Amino acid sequence: MSTAEALTTRWRSVPAAPVVAIGLVFVLIAAALLKSGSGTITGQAVLTGLVNGGVYSLLAMGLTLIFGVLDIVNFAHGAFLAVALFVTYQFVSTTGANPYVALPIAIAALFALGALAQWALLNHTMGRPLESQLLLTLGLSLLVSNLLLLAFGGDPLSVAVAGDHGVNVLGAVANQTRLVAFGGALVLAAGLYLLLGRTRLGRAIRAVAASRQGAGLVGIDVRKIYVLTFGLGTACAGAAGMLIAPFTTITPTAGDQFNILAFVVVVMGGLGNVAGALISGIIVGLVEQLGGVLLTGQSPLFGVFLVFILILVARPQGLFGARS
Amino acid sequence: MTAVVAPDAGAHEGTVTRRHRSARGTLGVLAAVTAVAATMPFVLPESQQAVAIRVLIFALLATGWNLMSGYGGMFSFGNAAYFGVGAYADVVLLVGHGVSPWIGMVVGAALAALLAVGTGYVAFRYKVKGAYFALATFAIAEMLRLLATDTTWVNGTIGYHVPLLAEESWWMFQFEANAPEYFWIGLALVVVAFLAVLFYLRSKAGRYTVAIRDDEDAAAALGIAVMRYKLTTMALAAAITSVAGAFYAQYYLFVDPDIVLGQTQSIQAIVPAVVGGVGTLWGPVIGAVIVGPLSTVTASLLRTPPDALSFLAGRSGLDVVLYAVLVIVIVLVLPKGLYGTIRQFVLDRWRSR
Amino acid sequence: MSVLRVEGLSKSFRGIAALSDVDVEVAEGTVLGIIGPNGAGKTTFFNVVAGAFKPDAGTVTLDGTDITGLPAHKVARAGMTRTFQLMRPFATLSVLENVAIAASVGGGSQRAARRRAEEVVASVGMDEWADTVAGTLHTAALKRLELARALATRPRVLLLDEVLAGLVPTERQPVLDLLAGLRDEQGLTLVFVEHIMAAVMRLSDSVVVFDRGRVIARGAPADVVEDPAVVEAYLGTGVGSGD
């Protein structure tokens, strides 16, 4: 099944086999309970997992949108996230304002950056072999994160939100900023979903995803849609970057790990499946945290990669797609 | 067949003999290049020896990647896995058990090949291809990095220091810092890797590999065991990459998970090949010669920057910025890479003569 | 004696039957034409017989050996090679290299493979293009390359998927002569899927007609076209419109 179909035919019908995924999460919760013998530890893992997962969802929706419409596996997505972190940092350190004021700025700046990348670089390789785009986004990723390194240096920076404190949620604790990030990510994700589903631009984007030639025939400027889509996808990284800035160590390579996670989410949701990415982001967040409880002594990411490889092998179309 | 137009009429006669001559030509050029390169330790100031070594490591890395991804069409974004296996096999055996690095190198190559065959088999069995394959190789390298980080048996995040010996030893692969032996050994390894790729490509297996890259189904339809040759290619590429890792460990005398299994190694395997020319014999080597010195050049530039760049004083990252730009420009403008483009140009001129 | 025997072959995709209970036999040294409207299952038949897909049921026997469900490369090694409807050259290699690769499958030195490739390339009238990179060839030449490559594997049975498609009428005759020569002079068994009726009528010793995954008629070419079921299946699709 092509990604174009993934965007169109599966647009409104989200779950085909999410039972498996949700079952997996419950199994993990049960296993974590058994392993730790503590409801508090497990509850905390679930809360943290959910909250992180919201951000993964937002980030991955952008990545999967780009893949679904442009067929580009964008290795630079994490670097763009790092740009948003620095945009937020720069804004806060210059103006001293509340970081959340930077949200529209980060979104706009990253939209522009993504659109520029597509317009100036990637539009010239459309239709070339996959390797060209992989290499180009790889080059872009190196370029962006090392420009950040040149400009800001490698020392960790941070953005503080005044009055941030832990909030008790059903016995588990999460920082206010994390809860805001979770809520904000879900709201923006829902917004993107509506934009794609309900607006004229969204229709045009889906038309291009379904058939480039067909879209061109009915008068859609395909290259313009590419540029806007890449901008939109990158804007997701912009939003995610700003939202996580208050509780993230800001370095030029801070986006790398998110990039990896976003790929896992995207593949799990089915490359190009925006709704799948939304749900998978949460699942990956949970798997990461619960895996951390289960595989003590191992990095929580290990479990995520394990799931990733299993999905690549067993269900390359993702958890939410039909087998082709 | 009147309707067919041969697009490059004039290049017809005598293919067989021309091929043989070109192979002999390649060997001749290799011998000449090696002879010139071997004098580098006498020509270069001692401070530049490290640059020369880096060029050699890049050349090995890129030669391995190019075989697998350029000739084999299996785009890997995780060659750090093989590099790391090579480096770790070396230090674990040497530091833990006093085994000669030469044996460690062979063991590492075997393990890396095994890893490649195992992961490749699963990937191809389940038809993990293209971008998915790239992501899978990436995930495997990252998993190995995480495993090494969290495994006390291989010293976790601390990694390994290769203990210094009282005196130089060929058997234990240790010489004075910046001794020419390091360069010569590295050069010899690059030559061996180059020859391995050259002869592999001229063997039946190598020809099948290229055919499979061009069209897997058509190759299978002619009776070629696609899986076997893909795995063979991956194994050889992994072995070459692992040798780079072992050499790295012996030269820098330090190995830790982030350094030898990190993304950087995967990227450094790709960049020189792309710059020089993917799917060409000389491309990775030429790319390494171009990309290798960049970091030194930029480092000295940034230490004492010209006035125009004074705001960059003391910063790092310029080298990667430059090679990132190089990669982007080459992909956009010269998709065959520098060597590939020049070769094409010369061939076209020669043919149209 | 039939060299290729297919019995009860069935294959479905996502619950939709592409082939149901198909029986086909081909006698050694003869040409079998397979015809049928678009979507009748002809190419699926090739794909299953040649090992690209595993069948859901049924057997494929080549020269007395059961080759059912073997992967494509083993089918080829067992002596049955197929060509593709859309030409699939090794685009970066020369014509001669394409054929030499095929010739080297199954053993022998590379030198021998090269010699054989030169023979085969000459035998299909392509020696002039031997050193041309396959990716730059035109359709007619690619068709010949496809054939040359298949022949170089020394098959006993050759499965040809629309070798004439994309050729202008003047290009077809030499290909047909070539195929007839393979049967008459080398005793090769050919199974070919073809839309162009005139070619099927001329070359085939027998014909099988597919429609919606089933065999609806079989027999001598002249008899088959008269068959009411065949006419029915082709109504609206234009028999012989290929010319």
Automatic annotation (TrEMBL), chain A:
It is a multi-pass membrane protein. Belongs to the binding-protein-dependent transport system permease family. LivHM subfamily. The chain crosses the membrane at residues 16-34, 55-88, 100-122, 134-152, 179-196, 225-248, 260-286, 293-314. Keywords: Amino-acid transport, Cell membrane, Membrane, Transmembrane, Transmembrane helix, Transport. The keyword Cell membrane applies. It comes from Cryptosporangium japonicum. It is found in: Cell membrane. This is Branched-chain amino acid ABC transporter permease. It comes from the Bacteria.
UniProtKB/TrEMBL annotation, chain B:
Pfam families: BPD_transp_2. The keyword Cytoplasm does not apply. The chain crosses the membrane at residues 27-44, 50-68, 80-96, 102-124, 131-148, 182-201, 234-254, 320-339. It comes from the Bacteria. Keywords: Cell membrane, Membrane, Transmembrane, Transmembrane helix. It is found in: Cell membrane. It is a multi-pass membrane protein. Coiled coil: none annotated. This is Branched-chain amino acid ABC transporter permease. It comes from Cryptosporangium japonicum.
From TrEMBL, chain C:
GO terms for molecular function: ATP binding. Keywords: ATP-binding, Nucleotide-binding, Transport. The keyword Transport applies. The keyword Nucleotide-binding applies. Coiled coil: none annotated. Residues 4-237 form the ABC transporter domain. It holds the Pfam family ABC_tran. InterPro entries: AAA+_ATPase, ABC_AA/LPS_Transport, ABC_transporter-like_ATP-bd, BCA_ABC_TP_C, P-loop_NTPase. PANTHER family: AMINO ACID ABC TRANSPORTER ATP-BINDING PROTEIN (PTHR45772:SF7), CONSERVED COMPONENT OF ABC TRANSPORTER FOR NATURAL AMINO ACIDS-RELATED (PTHR45772). This is ABC transporter ATP-binding protein. It comes from Cryptosporangium japonicum.
